[in-house]
Amino acid sequence: MQTVSQDLDLLCVNTLRTLSIDAVQKANSGHPGLPLGAAPMAFALWQRHLAHDPSDPSWPDRDRFVLSAGHGSALLYSLLHTTGYALSLDDLKSFRQWHSRTPGHPETFATLGVEATTGPLGQGAANSVGMALAERMLAARFNKPGHKLVDHYTYALLGDGCMMEGVTAEAASFAGQQKLGKLIWLYDSNDITLDGPTSLSFSTEDVAARFRAYGWQVQRVERGDADLAGIDRAIAAAKADATQPSLIIVRTTIGFGSPARQGTNEAHGSPLGADEVAATKRALGWDPALSFHVPPEAAAHFRAGVARAAEHRAAWNKVRESYARAHPDLAREFARRMAGELPEDFAARCERELPRWENGGVATRDAGGKAENALAAIVPELCGGDADLSSSTKTLIAGEQNQGPEHPAGRNVRFGVREHAMGAIGNGMLYHGGVRPFVSTFFVFADYMRPAVRLAALCKLPLICVWTHDSVAVGEDGPTHQPVEHLASLRAMHNLRVVRPADANETAQAWRLALESDSAPVALVLSRQKLDVLPGSANKAREGVARGAYVLAEAEGGAPQVLLIATGSEVALALAAHKRLAGEGVRARVVSMPCWSIFAAQDSNYRESVLPAAVRARVSIEAGATFGWERWIGDAGVAIGLDGYGASAPGDKVLAECGFNVENVVLGAKRALANASGRKA
Fold first, then answer.
1. Cα–Cα distances in Å, from 367 out to 242, 352, 533?
2. Is it the case that residue 681 has pLDDT exceeding 60?
3. Which residues lie below 8 Å from residue 502, measured CB to CB, with a gap of 6+?
4. What pLDDT does residue 679 have?
5. Residue range 568-596: average pLDDT?
6. Which residues have a Cβ under 8 Å from the Cβ of 547 and sit 6 or more positions away?
7. What is the DSSP letter of 94?
8. Is residue 74 within 8 Å of residue 22, measured between CB atoms?
């Protein structure tokens, strides 16, 4: 049996190490190297600093901890188990198995106590920046003299891979600019990545100098494998500096304790093997016969650390009670916002205050800006920004200050040209809670945000993405700035609602839809050019957008012979073709389909009422790739789109040359009718 001849802290550190390598070995899959090397810094943080409470994992003022190096998830699960979260030894033994609570990388929806879903390196680092930003914004909104309702830290553990990722650099630069003094990163610097030593690809950079240049406090702990006191002092010093974020570079040995693999890339991503696990345990002073073992002395010591952390929650509960008496309205708002609920009067005020248009020409980006500002007056937690493009995306909240240390309550976030980090920071704000962020850029740069958007969809985070300049109608900027395949590729992403409104009224309702979404990100894909306000949209857009598609113009004189299905600016083109076809005796129905996925989720009766199965002659019209439209138009249908790239020319000229004109739509309708009847067009 394990004796208590070791220092209790070291006993706990080795408990974390051995639990982690046992989990990896039993799964025959995973990453043992990081847990063996980083266990001391994780223990020092969780035991001596982290304010958390396993009995209430989501209490609002807890410290946040993000394992950005998510491949080291076995270490996080070992921490959660030993500190009393609802994660049993059986859960550790089910590491990386089907439907277990210990998946290969940390997932918020699988495991209580996991603050961010990490795995793609650098995303967690950027998430932590969003968490720290949300903390500051909420503190500025709610804290009052004598009542600090919001006052906590955000920590992240990064590896060498995180440090190489561009998203980390963008996020760190932003955090330094913002002077996020309650953000602390611990860098597990072990000079090893999957393929070998970092000298292969990451040897000339001075990370400390880079972060100082970003405006961070930087400290070093040279003996991170054993120097718990040094790690403790560094974290304390980081917490004491409220003027800048902090990076603690902790020198470690990957696979520490493994006689054959420590310090090598072989310890990174593969189980040690039964013999090497036994040898590692012996090297750590552990009985190799013991598996998934938590010594009673270690368990008691871990509980003492949890008791210290739980005191923070008990003290906060008293603050909350006192705050509720002194500031009842703010207390109710705080509770509502942290619960992720909209104001009670949201629907009624939307009916009164969301703008409506009866006629005229309005770019949907301009309509989006007006709708966003109307909603910002209704929903005080709505905030966000852009990649240095607010003058183009029209996403500035009028009358509000720019977020920053001088204006911590500011609702306009100046992300700068940092699209990669912007999306992940927005996710971090949502993980934190209490705010509803939007992020914006040109649609063609949605690809720069794609990893963060995918994680938002996976984790059911209601991130609002405002993507403007939606088609080749961008014009003179040319094909580098003209999105073509983006609609199709993003529609392929499960649980992402891609909404491309046809006019100003659809845009206002799309913004409302985005705020009403609580379990899916929403992409608002908006035009640069002016679009006519469509007849009937002022009355039909509310239900039409909420249901994904609707009949905008009905066939005249009987049942429709052909369906014209369009999105965005091309709906107006469908209406013009509808009129031309009517003059030729062809009965056409125009369907505006702003969101495929929402329409697909409607009941079969509604879908049939919009797209009758009996009408096989169908035409899709969209200034983008035709890929996927076969789902809606069938084998007799005709897809009018752009399966190539655009060109630099005035937008109207590009659209016309690419076939987006009334004549081509009318010809497409006739081809579809011929296809449906079996005749040649």
1. 40, 16, 11
2. no
3. 531, 534, 537, 552, 566, 567, 568, 569, 570, 571, 572, 592, 594
4. 74
5. 98
6. 598, 599, 602, 606
7. T
8. no
Residue ranges of E strands in 481-616:
497-499, 522-525, 530-532, 550-553, 562-566, 588-592
d(CA 8, CA 14): 10
Amino acid at 532: D
Mean pLDDT taken over the chain:
97
Q: Tens of pLDDT along 319-353?
A: 999 999 999 999 999 999 999 999 999 999 999 99
Among 205, 174, 187, which Cα is nearest to 34's? 187
Closest to 364 in 3D by CA, of 417, 440, 416: 440
Cβ neighbours of residue 451 under 8 Å, at least 6 residues apart?
A: 120, 123, 167, 420, 423, 424
CB atoms within 10 A of CB 571: 30
> What's the distance, CA 251 to chain centroid?
31
Sequence-separated (6 or more) residues with CB below 8 Å from residue 206: none
- Using DSSP's 3-state secondary structure scheme, residue 637 falls into coil
Tally of CB atoms within 10 A around 332: 12
Extract the tokens encoding 186: 């611990």
Q: At what angle do helices 166-178 and 207-214 cross, to 10 degrees?
A: 40
pLDDT single digits (tens) 357-393: 999 999 999 999 999 999 999 999 999 999 999 999 9
Two structure tokens written together for 587:
């009965």
Instruction: Cite the active site residues.
Output: 419
Q: Which of 131, 148, 129, 155 is nearest to 50 (CA)?
A: 155
- Check: CB of residue 427 under 8 Å from CB of residue 133: no
Residue 81 vs residues 99, 119, 461: alpha-carbon distances, Å: 18, 20, 26
DSSP class of residue 472 equals G
Percent of the chain at pLDDT > 90 equals 98
Query: Mean of the pLDDT values across residues 510-514?
Result: 98
pLDDT confidence of 310, banded at 50, 70, 90?
confident
Average pLDDT over residues 270-291: 98
Separation between Cα atoms, residue 33 and residue 294, nearest integer Å: 20
Enumerate domains of the chain plus CATH numbers. Answer: 8-312 (3.40.50.970), 346-532 (3.40.50.970), 547-677 (3.40.50.920)
**Phi/psi zone of residue 281: left (φ > 0), alpha (ψ -120 to 50 degrees), beta?**
alpha
Q: Bridge-partner residues for 203, per DSSP?
A: none
Interval 190-222: pLDDT, tens: 999 999 999 999 999 999 999 999 999 999 999
Question: pLDDT (tens digit, 9 = 90+) per residue, 462-472?
Answer: 999 999 999 99
Instruction: Supply the pTM of this predicted model.
Output: 0.97
Q: Residue 17: which of 207, 239, 9, 168 has the closest Cα?
A: 9
pLDDT over 70 at 128, yes or no: yes
For residue 302, the Cα-to-chain-centroid distance in whole angstroms is 33
Q: What is the pLDDT of residue 1?
A: 31
Q: What's the pLDDT tens digit per position in 425-441? A: 999 999 999 999 999 99
- Residue 285, φ and ψ in degrees, nearest 5: 80, 30
What pLDDT does 6 receive? 53
Distance (Å, whole) CA 569 – CA 57: 47
Q: What is the CA 642 to chain-centroid distance, rounded? A: 30
CA distances from residue 300 to 8, 38, 294, 304 in whole angstroms, order as listed: 10, 22, 10, 6
Q: What whole-number percentage of the chain has pLDDT above 70?
A: 99
